[in-house]
Amino acid sequence: MTKGRPPSLGMGLNRERFEGGIFMSRFAKISSIGCDYKEIDPSLDMREAVEAMKEHLRGKLSRVLPDRPDLIVLPEVCDMPRSFTGERLKAFYACRGDSILTMMRETAKKHSCYIAYPRLRQVEDGTWRNSVELIGRDGEIVGIYNKNHPVDIEISVDGVLGGKDAPVLQCDFGTVAFVICFDLNFDRLREMYVKAKPDLLVFVSMYHGGLMQQYWAYSCGSFFVSAISQSYPSQLISPLGQVLRTNTNYFDSFTEKVNLDYVLCHLNGHWEKLTAMKEKYGEQVRIVEPGYVGAVQISSESESLTVQQLVQEYELETFSDYLKRSLEFQCLPGNIEP
Taking every annotated instance into account, which residue ranges of this chain make up the domain CN hydrolase (predicted)? Predict the structure, then answer.
């Protein structure tokens, strides 16, 4: 068994949970709720409107809580009434205050799960942020991500300021980073996450983003889960860009288990090693080859075998290290035109 802290092996080899001096496999059950915005009767007073929103969100959460997820993800500004705009929307948020946050914290604690709660919130100086608050299993706030790249109308009309930081938050199953809607268009944020190497990227949005979702997953070497409103499909994507699960026209939510004990490797230099590994370990090792990208995702399906052990036993080179080594070799004198 591997003891102590594992060596740093570059993108694609994820951190493993430490138990009794042994690094064990890590599975996480993720629920995505891609619900649309609640239509609230405009004749209701604000307190009644807030209660109607709470009831709506409780109903959505109740669809996935029986699955006992580790993480629940809701869509961007999930508690925004569909028909409320301008001053009426601001009045709704003023009445709401932190009451829905409190409800989410109570739910997370009661069901021992993490909840990613996206909302528009006013900070102490009176300005606004488009945020995701990550709530822990104990009901406490683990951390907050503020949308780094709001669209111009958010800034000019809603008074939303862009965030500057991109925190990678630690959960007991791995590390999580966030992307909100328009963020998906900007390489600045993506490149920060390429360096940070989160286990899971969480994308909450009003727009889908198309191929960019898969590109971010592949580029960062991370699992990617989206929760998207307005009837767009929400997805779970593998670190090699495969769509693993999506909601449907019948059900706006799904729950799926992912294995975060994995490594990404290019096929070059690994063909014989992959064959030998599979012959020795059989179903204890899962090798996924999505086609066309020349890389595989190797994961341990056993509680007694970790990817860290496989990397050491077969001297595996991670995908990112292979690309780095290739670039360095290409740039050596004599290997590039003068």
Answer: 40-262
